[in-house]
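Reagents: none. Just compute today. isochorismate synthase.
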Amino acid sequence: MNYIKINLKLNNPLAFWANFSESERFFWFDPQKETFVIGCERLRAIDLEHDKFSDYPYLFHSQTFFDDIKGELWENFGGETIAFKHYFVVNKENSYTLTCDSPREIPEITIPKFKHQLTEKASDFSAWQELFYAIQKNFADGKSRKIVASRELEFTSQTSFELESIIQNLLDNNPNAFIFAYQKGKRIFLGASPEILVQKENDQLLSYALAGTFPKTMENAGQKLLTDPKNLLEHDIVVQKIKRNLLEKAETVTVGTTELMELKNVYHLRTILSAKNSELSLIDWTKQLHPTPALGGEPRHEALEFLRKHENHERGLYAAPLGLIDSKGNGTMIVGIRSALIVDKKLYAYAGCGIIPSSDALEEFRETKVKLKTILEAL
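Predicted 3D structure written out:
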């Protein structure tokens, strides 16, 4: 496929996104590389077994948390690797479009500050308690060591959602996170994820073990988190599982030092694991690692079986892999956390937390409320 490169400077990359409001499109900001990549107008879905990465400048990959989707909310989402007709790339050196179709004039835009007036469908702590106690029974029966439970909160806006305003707020509020938005039809999934599932650069691999959380409102939260037994145990379960999964396929694996990751509202425990492998693709590694115990639980099969049965909402793209692959097959897959799905004037916000036998129902509920701020503060 022949793409034409045209230099283009815009005051805000969101101008490119806004110009394709009726198209399938994705928005991606990588805080490590300080790079924006926006793709608009689907060209085709890629067959990873037969198509070449090198035919396309970038591919956008997404999949649902579970392979099968129940209900209509997430219908036709995920399970695809997509090439687009138009791309806009902004990095530290330059900015340009890549197109295999007729180039478009892209007008500049101004993004006003907008505050949505929302009505929340009442959230039920008793429903959370019921789920929590079912998890504790699962532990008592010896089935699982950790289960990551999640909540879905439904909001209704008085007006249509101003997507550019929301994405800009996510960018402004979360400089250390990967900012993403994916629109398909009238539904948009967006968020600010701090968690890399797997990153590939030639034969070098990287994965985040991100588990263990304290709110920043707590006095000395960061230092307390580094020594908190419950959070350290929860974190170690994730580290050890990712290490084992990497060792199954990689030539070498290195486990970094556990450190604090600071975000706007919380501290997390983070350990970066690196590995070397020249055989498997980024998608192969995504399948190998997803879901880690930071998103599903441990053991994996037992935890997922529990979640399928007991969580009363469909996860869809929430907590599932999504990301960008370049023409060399390199790229980054994050997990879709700190996220929401927008459907017309409805917004479904998602947050989860890792539960182990020593967890407390109210504390975990409060943790999900803090994590939900990432989305709610952008509205």
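The chain has eight helices and 20 strands.
Action item: order primers for follow-up constructs.
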